[in-house]
Amino acid sequence: SNSLNIREVTYTGEHSSREKDYSSPAIVRDASKCILCGRCVGACGTVQTVGAIGFAKRGFDTVISTAFGRPLAESTCVNCGQCIMACPVGALTEHENIRDVWDAIADPDQYVVVQTAPAVRVALGEEFGLPVGTRTTGKMAAALRRLGFNKVFDTVFGADLTIMEEGTELLSRLSSGQNLPLMTSCCPGWVKFMEHNFPDMLDNLSTCKSPHEMEGAMVKSYFAGKLGIDPQKITVVSIMPCTAKKFEGAREELSNKDMQDVDWVLTTRELAAMIKEAGIDFVNLKDEEFDNPLGVGSGAGTIFGATGGVSEAALRTVFELVSGQPLDTIEYTAVRGMDGIKENTVELPDGRTIRTAVVHGLGNARRLMEAMQRGEKSYDFMEVMACAGGCITGGGQPILNAADSS
Length: 406
Ligand code: SF4
What we know:
This is NAD(P)-dependent iron-only hydrogenase catalytic subunit. Keywords: 4Fe-4S, Iron, Iron-sulfur, Metal-binding, Repeat. GO terms for molecular function: 4 iron, 4 sulfur cluster binding; ferredoxin hydrogenase activity; iron ion binding. By secondary structure, this protein is an alpha/beta fold. The chain folds into 3 domains: about 20-95, Alpha-Beta Plaits (2-Layer Sandwich), CATH 3.30.70.20; about 100-160 and about 210-285, Rossmann fold (3-Layer(aba) Sandwich); about 165-200 and about 300-395, Fe-only Hydrogenase (Larger Subunit), Chain L, domain 3 (3-Layer(aba) Sandwich). Helices cover about 35% and strands about 15% of the residues. The protein has 13 helices and 16 strands. The chain has helices at about 40-45, 80-85, 100-105, 120, 135-145, 155-175, 190-195, 210-225, 245-250, 270-275, 310-325, 360-375, 400-405; strands at about 20, 25-30, 55, 65, 90-95, 110-115, 150-155, 180-185, 235-240, 255, 260, 265, 335, 340-345, 355-360, 380-385. The strands form 5 sheets. A 5-stranded mixed beta sheet has the order 8-16-15-14-13, sandwiched between helices. A hairpin with a 2-residue loop joins strand 10 (about 255) and strand 11. The longest helix has 21 residues, at about 155-175. The protein binds iron/sulfur cluster (SF4). The site of iron/sulfur cluster has 13 residues, from helix 9.
């Protein structure tokens, strides 16, 4: 149990012969705990249309498994973690990295930098009995310092960089007319979904790294130079609402000179477990500020955690780059007959228009992609988040029971 901080219990009675599946860097499956309720199958197959896990056999020997019983890492899993949120018995969990982070903090040769995503601060309090939605930014920064991190950064800075880069990329694609619509690449669940399901449209994805990857890369270049620290001696830890970010952090492409931009990703749940393990009285901590040696976040990046946030921030950037004027309001309208999909059109001062779609939930994304392939829809810019509602409901967030959410 995470709340009791017990990770390993030696049990001498009868053991299940089923091995845990540790193949994925994001999600662990423990089939011996599975009660065959099928909620993960519904979340993965019906809602997300990923179909990485399903029922096998369907007789008395029914099991929940990937196709051909292959390890999860060899399936079409996109690591969104919605199966974890659906599982009532803990047979699916994140691939825990708490021990790795404790080891880095304890290593005197390592300078350990932590960054936290916007959606973590509004959910962390739930693990400590605070009302749902309580903002715990100041307490979280204080707790991270007490855990022993050398610097505590806000991923909002990386989000601001992503917005500038993505806005500029959109302008250049609008000018060339190539690889439109530009599709956001900040959700690693969506990127992997594209790789499995729409490989002929990978060039439409933005070439920008996601915010925490940009920030990690910058910490190991600009920040390392500024402090005169060998980047090999810096460990970057990201606290994310997301299990897919663990997979993203381990991707070979997101590294430089054999160094990953981000070394470890912990979920909101894992951070709460560390705080409890350290015996920190989280609720009574005095608020502290983030460290801020890299500049000040614009605030636009804060809305990254909610669906529609990325596109709004990028459109504002494009509008200002073209006109030198701020953009007033952006009105989105729901697409008829398609839940979870909104669209809008922004007119630039030079007469060009940008048609945008905002989609959350992979089932909705698949429906929109198929409508585009049939020629029924076309856009210049698409923001896609794998989780319904965006990162706020990510697969690494606190799991509420019915009493908590009432
Ligand atoms: Fe992760 Fe957010 Fe994408 Fe969900 S929507 S997979 S939490 S980045």
